[in-house]
Amino acid sequence: MHESEDLTHPRSGPASGAGLDDSIGFLLGAAYRKVSLTLLQQLRDWDITPEQWSMLARICERGGRIQRELGELTGKDKPTTTRILELLEAKGLIVKQPDPKDRRSQRIHATAQGERLLAETRPVERKALDIGLRALTEEDRAQLRQLLQRIVQPPASSLAEAQEEADER
């Protein structure tokens, strides 16, 4: 390596020789784990995990979706989505109904019990976030939300570029 080579990557911080405290990926993961663990503890009385809670929230927000769509909306792969939906169904929080347009698919809907549980636990989720993000001001939180939304929902041009790169491989 030449002395003039830069050890940092302009977008993610130090590339080598630096501690994990400078890694955006590590910090994102640590922040997620902190908030998720707090939410897990807060949801114990309702016998639902943060993973299940987020899936139920998506179903209540956008009911009547098929499994693949719900997996995409929650960022879960097919096996994880299947497992979560089976658990929610066993708890009586969702029902699966045949898709009238495609017999191979099922539309997933929240039950009245699922909707009640989500309504009861929304304040719990907000409290867990408040605990996890207590070091941030409202302005900081708004900025963080915007930045994370840009990462999670990149512009359509970025999606097209990513697809082109994947196709080239």
Topology:
Blueprint: E1 8-9, E2 13-14, H1 24-43, H2 50-61, E3 65-66, H3 67-74, H4 78-90, E4 94-99, E5 102-110, H5 112-132, H6 138-152, H7 156-168
Helix pairs in contact: 1-5, 2-3, 2-4, 3-4
Key features?
169 residues, alpha+beta, 60% helix, two-stranded antiparallel sheet
Description:
One of its GO terms (molecular function) is DNA binding. This is Transcriptional regulator, MarR family. Pfam families: MarR_2. With 169 residues, the chain is α+β, with helices and mostly antiparallel strands. It has a domain of 97 residues: Arc Repressor Mutant, subunit A. Helices cover 60% and strands 12% of the residues. The protein contains seven helices and five strands; from the N terminus they run ββααβααββααα. A three-stranded antiparallel beta sheet has the order 3-5-4. It has a two-stranded antiparallel ribbon with strand order 1-2. A hairpin with a 2-residue loop joins strand 4 and strand 5. Helix 1 packs across helix 5 and helix 2 crosses helix 3. It starts with 7 loop residues before the first strand and ends with a helix. The N terminus is likely disordered.
